[in-house]
């Protein structure tokens, strides 16, 4: 777990970064945003899951159409950093509280769309913040076996309580573990239910 | 082991007996039955031929890349609420675009329609604002075919468990799947309320069959293809059975865009774009469209000619009309202890106490059922399944995800959509797909009774969650639907050529050797789960068409 975080930071700081889309500097900024969306707490967060590598690859594959949003957003982010904290130039160099202060100015929750759909796309966001938010979540929780560089060591799944196995046997949870078996229904009184 | 029968490769100039457009719930079964009955069959499927080894648990592939489904960039569509509105570009439908069609990625809820669904108009009289009519066939006509589907395709369930079930000639071929925690919560709460919960009939194997494993409870079910063949899709069963006859060719990446008639008004085959977008013509003695309730009417409209300027087989003007999506509300809850309902398939318990409501008491027509489900995979859950108003990022968001993912349950209601003539699919006048064909335009505004029903059912769902002792509950306001998964009624079956598109043999009233069989054939919507009825119709249509062919009635 830690090695992934260390690796991510080393890669971001080194002269020859292991990123295909981002420069090392851009990656450090994006990773800092991701790390506030899903922070490292007493459990691993976006950093440990290698989310930045997922996003880097995403922008060259399924999320190509979001490259401009990301690059423009990074410029805007740095502008806000300099404006809010005179003398500062990098989002990643701010304290977590300062970072959150900036992110709150970017977070405009989309209007509620009613019942969630299983067809909701993780990249529906059009703003920079929404794009990074969705990509961070996807990079944290993608199937670790999917070859998309996210959810390293299944840390994201472990955080939300999803056993990384792909086969399960009943009982599954608390309420079915002592289930005695299905008992037949009594007959219905007429067919109408009201 | 029998010798492997080579799959035929017909030439496009070979006049095969049947060309079937679409390989989903209906097309797969038609292909299997007709080839088994000795006919030479070519199935033209617009999507790719994927198999179990191509399926994975990669949510990005499923959600962002539409690996199994129609892609909105290549096949865009428009939406409007009424014919008076200007349609705008807006994804309004999703369907499986691969061999096996939507049956590959569906939830696998497998309810029979009840007697009432075939005769509701006679029973309740006319409904203002709806074109509700009776079917030309009854439940009794379809019952043997429901049984045939359940046994051949492989359905898990417990016969006789619901006192509201229609009569059946045989039990299910295999026991229900293991109950989930959400199902136990649902069952106990429903019993407290005097309702009649029972194990959900599912098109998922609880016991292995030749070449197919029993469900391994991987948890990537709705939206995903099954890697072990446990989901009873057309891909897992019917397509393979059709190929084994040695008389059926499945031709993927074949996008049919026109059905042509000869001088005698007979269909001559299907014209399609192959994988290289070259135009091909497959000749056939008869044509069956099973392309789904959106693409079948679209194909008829695209095939307009001198004889049928408003669309092939559209003398009634009803091709594409009377679309029904099924209605229904939802209620969600979080419980104290982990359910871990992410394991396994989506639904383990349902109830049908409200299948037939008394319109005089409730103030609307229709009825429905409730299910207990968790159908969200991790990313989908984290993007869109926390209670409204929840934090969206930061530690509080992360903590909530960690708590709720294993503890969330949804009660999903499924109900009637009344047919409304203005609702439907036609061709957009400006937007084109990547092949240059006019895009689908969807028009839909729920009948007011459907919205009342959805709200009423959602109240029952909340009542159930109250009885279950949920820690936190939430639901969503009932809104007019703008997104279609069930595509029903758009080429309805009937006896009168003026008020229907096909007859009870699935033959178009206008073209003798052209048949339609899929969701478009349905006259009513049932109460929410149409796939079993679509498959039963496909088995029945296969029998009818076989008889017609043996009588020489297709070549007249």
Q: Quickly count the helices of chain B.
A: 12
Instruction: Tell how many strands the DSSP assignment of chain A holds.
Output: 0
Low-confidence stretches of chain A: 1-5, 11-17
Low-confidence stretches of chain B: none
Helical coverage of chain B, percent range: 10-25%
Query: How many separate domains make up the residues of chain A?
Result: 1
Oligomer: heterodimer
Biggest chain-to-chain interface with counts: A-B, 66 and 82 residues
Category from helices, strands and their pairing of chain A: mainly alpha
Question: How would you characterize this protein structure?
Answer:
The complex is a heterodimer of chains A (194) and B (556). Chain A has helices at residues 2-13, 24-37, 51-58, 67-84, 96-106, 128-141, 155-160. By secondary structure, chain A is mainly alpha-helical. Chain A has one domain (2-110, 119-160). The longest helix of chain A is centred in the middle third of the chain and has 18 residues, at 67-84. Chain B has 556 residues and is an alpha/beta fold. Chain B has helices spanning 25-36, 59-63, 116-124, 139-154, 181-192, 238-244, 295-302, 359-362, 378-384, 394-404, 448-468, 531-550; strands at residues 16-21, 41-44, 77-80, 88-89, 197-199, 248-251, 255-261, 267-273, 279-289, 330-334, 347-351, 368-373, 408-415, 424-432, 438-443, 472-475, 514-516. In chain B, α1 runs parallel beside α6, α4 (139-154) packs across α12 and α5 packs across α11. Chain B is globular, with a radius of gyration of 23 Å. The two termini of chain B are 42 Å apart. The model of chain B has no long low-confidence stretch (mean pLDDT 97).
Brief description of this entry?
The complex is a heterodimer of chains A (about 190) and B (about 550). In chain A, about 45% of the residues lie in helices and about 0% in strands.
